[in-house]
Design brief:
single chain, alpha/beta, 6-stranded parallel sheet, globular, Flavodoxin/NO_synth, Flavoprotein-like_sf, FMN_Rdtase-like_dom, NAD(P)H-dependent oxidoreductase
Length: about 220
């Protein structure tokens, strides 16, 4: 059985929705799955004067509280890791970077080498740094000697209007028309696409395990 870890940081719930869909797809495909959220690194509100964002953040924290917090052991255990992060100025979010910074000992003993890795994201606008956010995670994977598995354009689900990013599935939250609410615009096509991306990553991990055994 292939071990798949879905490791994500979500502030307002969009990435959480994608992560849950990724975990469900991997389980359905026969993987052993760990769904893990990355903890906040500060109790201070990120946008204290942006009431809609703060409300969405509080609601998400309450809803996702039962998801186990990620640990370095989850990465050591996994054959494949699928990462989720909102875009922050074209980069991965700070809490996820903080978690990654704790992998030094595992990396030093080459514990992340040859693991299959993939990433997905969500931003407020279609051109809000989706591709560069995923590429910023890829920079980390290069250092680990991991095998990057992009979705590419390998299935029709990746050609739907709400998808189309060959680097990794990306959703667009946008701006909500209802005053006092933040958008939660993860589409069914986004959920299907991240499921496809996750299973593809799992399949590559399986092939790597078999090939390395024979080698």
């Amino acid at each position: 059985m292939t071990n798949v870890a879905i490791v994500y940081y979500s502030a307002t719930g969009n990435i959480h929705k994608l992560a849950v869909a990724a975990a469900e797809a991997a389980e359905k495909a026969g993987a052993e799955v760990r769904l893990r959220r990355v903890a906040e690194i500060t109790d201070e509100p990120l946008a204290p004067n942006y009431k809609e964002w703060t409300q969405a953040n509080n609601e998400h924290a309450a809803a996702a509280g039962e998801v186990q917090v990620a640990a370095i052991d989850d990465l050591d255990w996994a054959d494949a890791v699928v990462w989720g992060t909102p875009g922050r100025y074209g980069l991965l979010a700070g809490p996820l970077k903080h978690f990654i910074d704790q992998t030094f000992e595992l990396h030093a003993r080459r514990g992340l080498m040859n693991k299959a890795m993939s990433a997905f994201t969500s931003t407020g606008t279609p051109h809000g740094g989706q591709e560069s956010t995923i590429l910023s995670l890829s920079n980390v994977f290069y250092h680990w000697g991991a095998v990057i598995v992009p979705p590419g354009v390998t299935d029709d689900i990746l050609l739907t209007p709400s998808n189309g990013n060959p680097y990794g599935v990306s959703a667009t939250s946008g701006l909500q028309a209802i005053p006092g609410h933040l958008a939660q615009n993860v589409t069914d096509d986004n959920l299907a696409a991240v499921g496809y991306q996750t299973v593809r990553t799992m399949q590559v991990a399986e092939a790597l395990k078999q090939g390395l055994k024979k080698g």
